[in-house]
Description:
The protein is α+β, with helices and mostly antiparallel strands. The chain contains four helices and twelve strands, in the order E-E-E-E-E-H-E-E-H-E-E-E-E-E-H-H. Helix content is 19%, strand content 29%.
Amino acid sequence: MTQPAVSSVLPPAPAGIMPFIVRYSGEVPLPVRLGRDRVRGRLRYADETRSDRDHWGTLWERVALPPKGQRGDPRPEEVHPYRQRRAMLDLWCQICKRPVDPDYGGPYLFLHRGGGEPLAEGTTTDKPPVHLVCSAVSVQLCPRLRGCFAGAWVEHVPTWGVKGAFYHPETLDLHQADAVVPLESPYRRWTIASSTVVELQGVTPLTAADLEAEWARLGRERLEREFERISRLAVAA
Length: 237
Ligand SMILES: [Zn+2]
């Protein structure tokens, strides 16, 4: 299915909106010394602290956290591991950092680059959810989605695993940079996570035309007002 670059029902997205989860040039990986935890049989940092692992015991990438205003230039193709993890954990909108459903009753909207194919039941993803109004900004500004998007309303979003760097258990050499590892996999013990992967359950698929119908229902005036609000929330920092 071919789609126009900008949907005809949408007011143009304001310039300068930067999604909350985007990584900046100053948020570089910090140097770490890897070791082997012989008691638990897993990878560890030589100077590991409690904040290096999540509550599943997964080791996470260490990244510099410069203060706002000193983060450098946004890298829209990359996500910051802490912000991505937080967005998935609390189901925050990846654009504006607000809960996608403050009551946590669902359903939650997920978008993907899909060539027009909607998301299917059981799909796994590391792209956090979005508000309906924020989705109307995403499809205009996100290079990954422009002209090639679909989505789904999703009832349940359990954590499925992580994406990250998998190290060889014997040599501790990097074995695969972008490994996708389920929670129950023994390989998770040898992986440094950089994003949380969730499973989409209770999926109502949305084609691009379905999404356009949802935006049209909101009406152009409401969308313009919401775009204005988002542009104050989601600015490059
Ligand atoms: Zn939002």
